[in-house]
Amino acid sequence: MRLRSLGAVLAATAALLALPATHPSATAAETPLSQGKTATASSEENGGTAAAKAVDGDTGTRWSSAAGDDQWVRVDLGGTATVTRVVLNWEAAYGKDYKIQVSGDGSTWTDLKSVTGSDGGTDTLDVSGRGRYVRMLGVHRATAYGYSLWEFQVFGTADGAQAGCGTANAAQGKAATASSTENAGTPASAAVDGDTGTRWSSQAADPQWLRIDLGSVQDLCKVDLNWEAAYGKDFQIQASSDGQSWNTLKSVTGATGGTASYDVSGSGRYVRIYGTARGTGYGYSLWEVAVHTGTTGVPPVQGGGDLGPNVIVVDPSTPGLQQKFDDVFAKQESAQFGTGRYQFLLKPGTYNNINAQLGFYTSISGLGLNPDDTQINGDITVDAGWFNGNATQNFWRSAENLALKPVSGTDRWAVAQAAPFRRIHVQGGLNLAPNGYGWASGGYIADSKIDGTVGPYSQQQWYTRDSSVGGWTNGVWNMTFTGVQGAPATNFDSGPYTTLDTTPVSREKPFLYLDGSAYKVFVPAKRTNARGVSWPANAGTSLPLDQFYVVKPGATAATINQALAQGLNLLFTPGVYHLDQTIDVTRPNTVVLGLGLATLVPDNGVDAMHVADVDGVRLAGFLIDAGPVNSDTLLRIGTPDASADHSANPTTMQDVFIRVGGAGPGLATNSVVVNSDDVIIDHTWLWRADHGSGVGWDTNRADYGLRVNGDDVLATGLFVEHFNKYDVYWNGERGRTIFFQNEKAYDAPNAAAITHDGITGYAAYKVADSVTTHEAWGLGSYCNYTADPSIVQAHGFQVPVKSGIKMHDLLVISLGGKGQYAHVVNSTGAPTSGTDTVPSKVTSFP
Where does this protein have compositionally biased stretches of type Polar residues (predicted)? Predict the structure, then answer.
């Protein structure tokens, strides 16, 4: 403990004497959300300067830390809140540089404010964020002492707060497990049986634990421990939503056994007593554990449940099954910008004489762990009768995880962008063109086995990854293959093919399946230098549905964020979801999975989704549709200062699509920004609409499709079209792209509108001048300047000329002579000319 100088005391006394008499305020002061809440800290200078002193409302008491820079104090607000202001009333030992951070789970933190050069006194900081926990994280002290706060005040609006603690024991009679038991007479269940004459005891070793499953996520407020003579001296009380990731609610050291009660604040389905040091030479032994839960406030979000009204689950005996497919197809065949969303889920078994025609926003998936578990003797058909045989607008539909034996021997899958074909075993051939071989502009196949021949015919471009084919015939402009057994050899000089033997890094999309009668989500493992399908080996992990908040139409962004803060994953059922706040994904390994092209629409200019700079987040199977008020960034992966290494467990973005306009006016400065390192973008279509409603150069303005700031990012199957400026702007080092399809904005009013830095037209794919290493294969950009066909775009691709920049197999095309390209990449490559729609190519640059 330190003493202030006499001079400082006298000065403070004089200041107090000089104060005028106080008078009652006209309005009562706002009570901080933090006042009286549970506070913890990295350290405490002594017993009289505990963390709780910083939130007690008393400016005569304080928290102070040990004398080190890396120190923090944290307050648990008791529930999720919108935080708008933080006030720090520093004692003489203040923080010069520090951060204010927020967290939903107490483990993953987001910066709200970084302060540098503070001079102490009272710092009032306007912030904006949501979470349950707020902390001051010290970076540099201003003195040789630690950090010291008279008060740490957090202001904002609480979603709801726990106002009472129940007396009932939520643990009694619940399932309990333990790290070990001393003998058969001291099982884990004896600690929750309500009988103080029975007990659980462990083996004589450290650490040991007892875990209780409450059956559902609960708000936790108190835990009572009734120790037998063999007690825990040091232990933690922990909570978890999934039984795997644990949040410490209370750390206890120097306990003396007996009966003790501990106030806690948090939520979880599982409660664990985790012993780290025994008080005796025996193990740990508890007569009883009682868990108390909150009696008021916002209830926790529960995981699991039914899949909502727009998921159609069938089995081979379902009556009128063909009619179900036909009814949905009748609604969705031409509903390009409609609000209907549907997911067919087929239980394992054999389905005979089925023709599942798929229209817009319709997905079909098998519920087996392997594709061959769900066998269709029939067809899954996408054709273009609704559009007079033109398949270039057959967007937003999917097929996944089943086996298919076509009636005629060949299935028809005539799709354009955003129509993935994943984990399918076609016991025959596959025709990618519409009936009559009209125009087609697709597409994507992954992790699939086609026993027969794939015929793309009129398809302008296609990307196939980690699959096997019995053969591949013809193609138009750009057919790219990686890790595909049976793929044709590269012939880009004279033909459309670019072939790589393996895919450098891949991880298949998570999918829903049935384990007996229980729904689970399988999360495939990462593969390196993959070739061929990932099944039936199926390396990965399974997550039960009760670890997911099953999001149904009508759910609010606040509830979605509350579920994430509790540690739940998200399963969006088919529907359109309007968001009045950004969805914040902050926990490592979170899965956000959509069914039936679930669609997120940000309202009032908010961003749709932010992902923290953490390991292993999986984003898959949903559409983000820009709202009529400009959003800065529809999807942001990683914070702007992201720098962590995620190579062992990268975040993946798969079948995540962006739409700006078409279903009405939409505005966004950026569609997707990737700040994290090592992200895998596996099949996306980022589209500024060229048709539909709300379409115009400024009406659905969106400057950038994809901006990559992170290092070591890999894109496999990148479709980006029509943005006002750069479709792709790559600023990170060691980026790689395998297959790129692009059309420039049709509606550029004239050359002046897209001229910058003396260059006519923004490149479809630009690598920043500062980048030293980048590589890409199989890239195509097409122009169709319908508003001003006289525009001559300088080039499709713009990259720095450096030894580490390697571009393979690039082409540019003028569609029917509506605009032209002067070059392919930089000033290299012949110009397009005329109306003959013949590509200009460069096979290697530089």
Answer: 32-46
**Annotated catalytic residue, options 333, 721, 743, 775:** 743
- pTM (global) more than 0.70: yes
238-259 per-residue burial string, b: 16 or more CB within 10 A, e: under 16:
bbbbbeeebbbbbebeebebee
635 phi/psi in degrees, rounded to 5: -135, 125
Q: What is the mean pLDDT of each run of 10 residues along the chain (846 residues)?
A: 33 36 43 83 82 88 88 85 91 93 76 90 88 90 93 84 77 97 97 97 98 92 97 96 87 96 91 98 98 79 94 97 98 98 98 97 98 98 98 98 98 98 98 96 97 97 98 96 98 97 98 97 98 96 96 96 94 98 96 98 97 97 98 97 96 98 97 98 98 97 98 98 98 98 98 97 98 98 97 98 98 96 98 92 98
Helices (H), 373-502: none
How is the chain split into domains, by residue range? 39-158, 165-294
Pairing relationship of beta strands 497-500 and 421-426 according to DSSP bridges: unpaired
CA pair distance 339, 625, nearest whole angstrom: 12
Strands 759-760 and 576-579: unpaired
The residue to which tokens 């999807």 are assigned: 635
Look at residue 792 and give its three-state secondary structure.
Answer: strand
To which residue do tokens 């995880």 refer? Answer: 401
Determine whether 775 is an active site residue.
no
Residues 186 and 227: their CA atoms lie apart, in Å, by 13
DSSP code string of 180-192 = --SSTTS-GGGGG
DSSP annotation of 753 reads G
Top-tier CATH class for 39-158: mainly beta
Cα 503 off chain centre by: 23
Note the pLDDT of residue 107: 63
Domain at 165-294, CATH from 2.60.120.260, 3.10.180.10, 2.40.37.10, 3.30.450.40: 2.60.120.260
Backbone angles phi, psi at 751, to 5 degrees: -65, -35
Q: What is the DSSP letter of 10?
A: H
CB within 8 A of 185, min separation 6: which ones? none
> Residue 37 in contact with residue 55, Cβ under 8 Å?
yes
Do domains 39-158 and 165-294 share one topology? The answer is yes
Quickly tell me which residue has 């809140």 as its tokens: 81
